[in-house]
Design goal:
With 136 residues, this protein is of the alpha+beta class. It is built from two helices and nine strands; from the N terminus they run ααβββββββββ. The termini are far apart.
Length: 136
Amino acid sequence: MVMLAVNFTACGDDEDEQTIIEQANLIGKWQSTWEKVHKVENGKEVVTSDEAYTNGLWEFKADGTCTEGYADGGTSRWSLKGNKLTISYDDGYSDILTVNELTANKLVLAFEDWDNTDDGGLELDDITTTTYKKIN
């Protein structure tokens, strides 16, 4: 009987996660409130910064365009598939961010910064996780 309850609970959690990442919740202006930067060194997480951060601003529009920052820095394109948010810039470059949380009023994005290694591979340099609140 306990096993059945655990399975039921796990199933319920999966359904909750699916409803959290709704594309419609992304539409609007988002102001950053907190930022955490950490690295993985020798298999352990090392936090290099964990503090209030209010300089980040994103605006996501229903037509698939977005802008970053306060100044008119140009328009980019966005797409959301599962929990992966892709920002495509005019220069052909793209960023892929992980949506850790998305509700009507809160957005948490994680950006992984990968570096090229001398042997042609990739190495994770750091992960920046930024929390935003909706401002419109």
